[in-house]
């Protein structure tokens, strides 16, 4: 059974053109799936609809056997504890330390008062240390986040998502602001999250070659529609053209390189 299923999801920001037009796909538990497509294709809108940061105009989304698109406040909060989110610009609290930012991932489980007072159990702190170690941030644990590099900030973002104990992590352009070195470290950690922790990852990416290297499956989106859904090995030049239109010429070089190796 699918962990996540989108059925005919439509989103209109304005009355004229839909940002999403009958988007349907399913993600199984333990899969690493990339969504690729040109700027404005609707990739971020898909992720924001899944965790209900925005409301869909039509269609249905189910997650872990629950109709997520219909949940009311309390259930929605519960759903969001099971879906971690990682952002291009990290969304950390800069003046707080690494461990404080990571512990913020537990806020969804707490009353507002406990959250405001920063009350975390010994077990939560133990868990935070463990995850910070896995992400290679032990030396930075008490450093303020505004003193970290972009790659380190994104590792804090991953740690904050992991401490939620999520079933799935949504990543919106996690490497778009990073250099190739830091990008590789982040993608390796995300792949680990699926391979070694069994957590499903759904990631928006600009770089086709990165999607080819890391994904179990690739979903290609163009103008709000899914135009490819298949294995990386099945992504052919004509699919790239369907996904990227006139931008595709440069990207075909990446596919050529993959086929040559
Ligand atoms: N809050 C908003 N209000 C109005 N239109 C929006 C809003 N957010 C996105 N859009 C529009 O919806 C479409 C899809 O945008 P979206 O950000 O989902 O695309 P994307 O594939 O993630 O692009 P990018 O790679 O540039 O982030 C675009 O035409 C965009 O202009």
TrEMBL record:
InterPro entries listed in its UniProt record: AAA+_ATPase, ABC_transporter-like_ATP-bd, ABC_transporter-like_CS, ABC_transpr_PhnC, MetN_ABC_transporter-like, P-loop_NTPase
SUPFAM superfamilies per the UniProt record, alphabetical: P-loop containing nucleoside triphosphate hydrolases
GO cellular component: membrane
One Pfam family from the record: ABC_tran
ABC transporter domain ranges (all copies): 4-248
Superkingdom assignment: Bacteria
Keyword tags: ATP-binding, Cell membrane, Membrane, Nucleotide-binding, Phosphonate transport, Translocase, Transport
Record GO terms (molecular function): ABC-type phosphonate transporter activity; ATP binding; ATP hydrolysis activity
Protein name according to UniProt: Phosphonate transport system ATP-binding protein
Organism of this sequence: Desulfotruncus arcticus DSM 17038
């Amino acid at each position: 059974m699918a962990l996540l299923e989108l059925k005919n999801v439509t989103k209109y920001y304005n009355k004229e053109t839909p940002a999403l037009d009958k988007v349907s796909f399913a993600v199984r538990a333990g899969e690493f799936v990339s969504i690729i497509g040109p700027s404005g294709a609707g990739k971020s809108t898909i992720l924001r609809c899944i965790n209900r940061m925005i409301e869909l105009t039509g269609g249905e989304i189910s997650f872990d056997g629950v109709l997520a698109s219909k949940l009311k406040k309390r259930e929605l909060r519960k759903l969001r504890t099971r879906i971690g989110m990682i952002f291009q610009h990290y969304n950390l609290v800069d003046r707080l330390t690494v461990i404080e930012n990571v512990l913020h991932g537990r806020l969804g489980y707490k009353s507002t008062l406990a959250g405001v007072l920063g009350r975390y159990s010994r077990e939560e702190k133990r868990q935070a240390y463990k995850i910070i170690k896995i992400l290679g941030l032990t030396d930075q644990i008490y450093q303020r986040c505004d003193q970290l590099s972009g790659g380190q900030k994104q590792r804090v973002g991953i740690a904050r998502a992991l401490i939620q104990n999520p079933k799935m992590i949504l990543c919106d352009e996690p490497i778009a602001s990073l250099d190739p070195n830091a990008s590789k470290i982040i993608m390796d950690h995300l792949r680990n999250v699926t391979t070694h922790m069994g957590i499903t990852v759904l990631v928006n990416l600009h770089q086709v070659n990165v999607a080819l290297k890391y994904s179990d499956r690739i979903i290609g989106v163009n103008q709000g529609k899914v135009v490819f859904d298949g294995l990386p090995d099945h992504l052919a030049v004509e699919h790239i053209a369907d996904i990227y239109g006139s931008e595709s010429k440069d990207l075909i070089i990446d596919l050529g390189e993959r086929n040559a190796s």
